[in-house]
């Protein structure tokens, strides 16, 4: 359980992850790359997974949820090159930005859960 990161901050992290996940989910329609099969399906699946995991973390925090979102965030960042849609600029940037946000928040949450400041409480 997070010791130094208050419940309010964890909630804020999870809400941002929900927004990032839903944002990635809608980008194929929003930025017009729904016809790009790999880019669109990856955005839909990874975006939905990020949002679902973040909602689960809101309900009851477990560190595993943060690890899952860290992996999903990293995947979102590298997917344009692995799946070959890096030439689709809108799709590439949507994945990179959403992935970085999710991965950084998950990594920060994991880090704070293990590296709490010294206190007398």
From TrEMBL:
Keyword match Lyase: no
InterPro entries hit by this protein: SPW (IPR005530)
The keyword Lipid biosynthesis is assigned to this record: no
Domain spans labelled SPW repeat-containing integral membrane: 14-107
Stored Pfam families: SPW
Annotated TM spans: 12-35, 41-62, 67-86, 92-112
Keyword terms: Membrane, Transmembrane, Transmembrane helix
Domain of life per record: Bacteria
Record-given protein name: VIT1/CCC1 family predicted Fe2+/Mn2+ transporter
Species assigned in the record: Rhizobium mongolense
């Amino acid at each position: 359980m997070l010791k130094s990161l208050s419940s309010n901050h964890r909630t804020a992290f999870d809400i941002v992850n929900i927004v990032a996940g839903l944002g990635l989910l809608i980008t194929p329609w929003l930025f017009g790359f729904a016809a790009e099969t790999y880019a669109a399906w990856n955005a839909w699946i990874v975006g939905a997974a990020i949002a679902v995991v973040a909602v689960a973390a809101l309900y009851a925090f477990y560190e595993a949820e943060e690890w899952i979102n860290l992996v999903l965030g990293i995947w979102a960042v590298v997917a344009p090159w692995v799946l070959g849609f890096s030439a689709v600029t809108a799709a590439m940037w949507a994945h990179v930005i959403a992935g970085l946000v999710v991965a950084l928040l998950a990594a920060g949450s994991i880090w704070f859960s293990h590296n709490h400041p010294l206190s007398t409480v």
